[in-house]
Amino acid sequence: MKKNKKKQLWFQGTIIFLFTAAAIVVFLSVTRIFHRPSLLRVLSRETAEPEKINLEFEPYHLQADKGLVSLNADLHITSLKGTVFPGMKNGQKKRSVTYTPRLSGQIIMDFYFFMPPDEDNPAKATLIHTGKNRTDSLPLKSSGSFERYQLPLSLEKSDTIEIIIEEDDKNTVCAVSHPVFYRPREKTKPDLVFLIVADTLRWDSLGIYNKSQKCSPNIDAFAGDAVVFDQAYSTASWTLPAHMSLFTGLYPDGHDINYDGSTLDKNIPVLFESLQKKFLTYSYNGNHFVSRLFGFARGFDIYIESLEDPRLRLASKILFDKARELVLQEKHEQALYFLHTYQTHSPFLPEVPLAKNYYADEFDSFRYDFNTLIKRGKDLFKKLDDSERHNIRRIYDAGIYTFDFRFGHFLQFLKQKGFYKNSMIILLSDHGEEFHDHGAWEHSHSLYNELIKIPLLIKFPENAHAGQRVEAFVSIVDVLPTIMDFYGIKSHKKADIDGISLLKTINGKTKKNRKIISYLAPSALRFKVPEKIAVLSNNIKFILQKKMTPEDIAYFETPPPPIKNEMFDIFADPGETVNIINSRPVEARRLLKFIESLSFKEGKREYFEELKKYLRSLGYL
User: Fold this and answer.
1) C-alpha–C-alpha distance, residues 476 and 263, integer Å
2) How does DSSP assign 539-572, residue by residue?
3) Torsion over CA of 161, 137, 97 and 330, rounded to 10 degrees?
4) Considering only 67-76, 134-143, 427-436, which range has the smallest mean pLDDT?
5) Angstrom distance (rounded) from CA 615 to CA 347
6) Of 512, 546, 580, which one is at a domain's C-terminal end?
7) Which of 182, 215, 243 is the last residue of a domain?
8) What would the pLDDT profile of 104-122 be if each residue is shown by its tens digit?
C-alpha cells in the first residue's frame, strides 16, 4: 500500500515538474529571451507619407503604392517594401524615417536606398545611429539607382536609427527599403538555395531525358550531382499560371491566376513569405509574366525584373553575372535566389559565338527568322515542310546551348568559391514548346507532354541522393514545399496547399492515388483556343478538351486538328499518339468524374498598361 502511494506521489510530482518546465519555455519564447530569430525585418515608424507617389524624370520612374517601392532605370524594375520620401510640404526642413530594432550585440543592417544622382543642388541624405551617449552618422549615396548598404553596427536594445533627407531646392523624392537586421555570419560559407527557371525549356531537349540531344552538356553533367525527376509536370502550358503554382504550391483552381491581368488574392499565401523566416530572398528575372504586378514580388527582400531579357542574346549571361554579384555580397547565414530567364523562349536568340559553335556547318540556319514565319494567333496551326521545321528546332536548341553554357560557368564559379557543396540548386522549366508535334507551334494552346512535362533536377547540400532517378509523378507545386521541408520551415499562415515535399518521394515513399492537374483557361493567351483540363493518375493521362465553334475554327489561317477528349498510357505511348479512351471506359469515367469536381473561375481579361508594350514586342498582343 505504501509503495503504491509513493508511486502515485512520484507520478504527480513528475507531472507538476513537466508542466512547470513547459510553462517556463513558453514564457521565455514569448518574451524573446529563449527564442532569437536569425533575421528581423523592421517596419518603419514613418514620418514620410505612405500615399501613392509617382515621380518621372529621365531615365527614372519611382512609385510607391501601399509600401511597395519600384524603380525603372536602365530597363530594370526593382521592387522593395519600404518608404518613399515625398517632396517637402508646408515649410518642412527635413524628411525622415526611424527604426528601433530592439536588438543588442553585433548586427548587420541590410537595406537599399535610392536618391537621384548629384547634380546642381542635390538633397543631403544621412543615416544617424543614436545610442547611449553616442551618435554616429553616415552619408548615403545619390547614385541614381538602388544602392545596397550592409552596415555592421553595435546595437543596444534602446538604440534608434534614423534616415534623414534634408531640404533641397529640387524637392527630391527618395526611397529606402525596410531594413533587415541579422547577426554576422559565423560559418565560413552561407547556406544558399538557387531556384533556377529556364522559361520554355522543353524536357526532351536535354540529354538526360533524350540521348540524341547534344545541346545541354553542362546540365547533363550536373545531373550526376542531383536527383532527376523523370515524370515532372507543370500546371499550365504558359508562364503566368505555371509560375503562380510554383510560388503558391497550388493548382490553378486554387490560385485563380489563369488570365493576363489578374493579381493574386492577398489572402492566398506565397510560400516565399514562409521561406523569409530563415532566408534572405532575392530574385533577378525576365519580367513580363513573372512581373510583380501579378503578386510575384511578395516574400522577396529584393525583386529585380529585367524588361529586356526576352530580347537579349546575353540574357542568361546577365542573369548569372547578377547572381554572382549577390552571392559575393552575402553576409547572412542563409540566402535564397529565384533566377529566371526567357533565353530559351521565342524569338530564340542564342549568343552568336555559341550559335556558331553549336551549328557548325549548319550556321546558315542561324539566320532563319522564326517570328516572320510563325506569327502568333492565326498561324498557330500552319504547316511547314520538314526542313523548315528542322531549322526552327535548331534555333531553339542553340538557345538551350547558350543557357547551358552560362549555367555551367555559374556552377564552376560556385565550386571555385566554395559555395557549391553546401548549396541546394534546383533547375526546372515552367512549360515546354511545341514544334508541330500535335499540329501546332509554340505553347499555351494544348496540354500535351511537349508542353506540360518539364525538366526537374534538385541538387541537395553535400550532394545527397546524387545521381538518383525518380519515376514517380510529381508537379511544379511540389518544389517549394520540398525546400521548406528540407530546411525545417513551416508556413507562417494556415495554407492548405496541393504541393507535397519530395523528400519522401525520393526515398521511394510515393503518395498513392495522387492526381496531377494541368489547366488551360479558354482563350487564356491564344484567341479562339477553348478550355482544356488534363489529369494524370498513375501512368494514365486524360485530357478534357472543349470543342471549338465554327467561328473559332474560321479564325485560323490553317484549320486546327480535330479536337476531342483523349486518354493516353504515357508509359507505353510517350508521344501521345494512340487515344485509348474508348478501350478503357472505366478509367475514362473515373478521371472524367474527378475533372468535373474541379472548379475554375472565369478570371480577368485585362492587361496592365506597364506590360502592354513588352508583350506586344513578343507577339502576345
Assistant:
1) 20
2) TEEEEEEPPPPHHHHHHSSSPPPP---EEEETTT
3) -70
4) 67-76
5) 12
6) 512
7) 182
8) 999 999 999 988 776 665 6
Amino acid found at 614: Y
In this predicted structure, what is the pLDDT of residue 33? 38
One domain for residues 151 and 221 = no
- Say if CB 516 and CB 475 are below 8 A apart: yes
| C-alpha pair distances (Å), 82 with each of 114, 142, 356 | 11, 17, 46
Contact between 498 and 250 (Cβ < 8 Å): yes
Residue 444: closest CA among 552, 514, 529, 510: 529
How many domains does the chain divide into?
Answer: 3
Question: Residue 573: is its pLDDT beyond 90?
Answer: yes
Q: Is residue 614 part of a domain?
A: no
Range of the domain at 3: 1-35
Residue 483 lies in a domain: yes
Q: Within a domain: residue 300?
A: yes
Question: Does the pLDDT value for residue 551 go beyond 50?
Answer: yes
**Do 64 and 53 touch, CB atoms closer than 8 A?**
yes
Q: Percent of the chain beyond pLDDT 90?
A: 58
State how far the Cα of 197 lies from the Cα of 132, in Å rounded to an integer: 49
User: Cα–Cα distances in Å, from 605 out to 253, 485, 519?
Assistant: 17, 36, 17
Q: Are 165 and 215 in a shared domain?
A: no
Q: What element of type H or E holds 472?
A: strand 469-475
Q: What's the DSSP call for residue 142?
A: -
